[in-house]
């Protein structure tokens, strides 16, 4: 139900759009209302007030009486049923030969009296705060990492791929294959990545999920020594670590991914080495204007994109009748956000440090 002030705002926006040349039907659809609703809201150019909340409503003839509602509450609060939801109470009452109201009526009465909650020892769902967002406007500002399973030679046996990706360039900055998940092994990988990229004590953010290797004591101490800011996903929310999840999907959907598993750890390492080389040096990534991660990481993507833009401009000048609009956008991709909710950039971390 839209209130009168909201109606006035909606009508004003629609009139403004129509005056600017838009069709009334299109303007109404943008606000998710119909033209018929717009006509009902207005009369002689004025917005009609919404009187529906003021109209008295008669009590339904089949409504439960006050005594019947009280009986429902007495049953729900009794010792026998105090820890059970209505979905359990109603069948138990039926087995006792008692009928007070329907299950939906039980829920409605409890809700009206502020008693609709998790009963017994059950805890209410915890609404967890979304992870802080970080902006990467250059390489080595925000990394994400995760561990995925790689099938072994027999069912139930796995190797574990540790993989770190820079979200700005999508470059795989470091990886390793191990036979177990461990915070100690993860800490070694982080140190190797930082040394390889030469970003010691820089405002680097490292995002991961809530697995034990990600939050182990060794891992936390290593990150503190390296000056890395830790960021974590919400429990059981894979969407909070989208860059690593997307990279794992690309990895496992490669045509040469062995569906029957890897015979040895060495085989798995050889395969990942080939994949990482292809991904960083040959794969044209759609999110960064179809340049390779290595090119964007090193800043060489601008020359490539400038050449593409010039080529398209020349092609348009030679055959302008084939172009109905602008040429393809070959501008370098801008900054990248990790979970854009509370926007904090790596430079702001540096300024605050």
From TrEMBL:
InterPro entries: Integrase_cat-core, RNaseH-like_sf, RNaseH_sf, Transpos_IS3, Transposase_IS3/IS150/IS904. Residues 135-301 form the Integrase catalytic domain. Pfam families: rve (PF00665). One of its GO terms (molecular function) is nucleic acid binding. SUPFAM superfamilies: Ribonuclease H-like. Residues 318-330 have a biased composition (Polar residues). Residues 318-353 are annotated as: Disordered. It comes from the Bacteria. One of its GO terms (biological process) is DNA integration. This is IS3 family transposase. It comes from Octadecabacter arcticus 238.
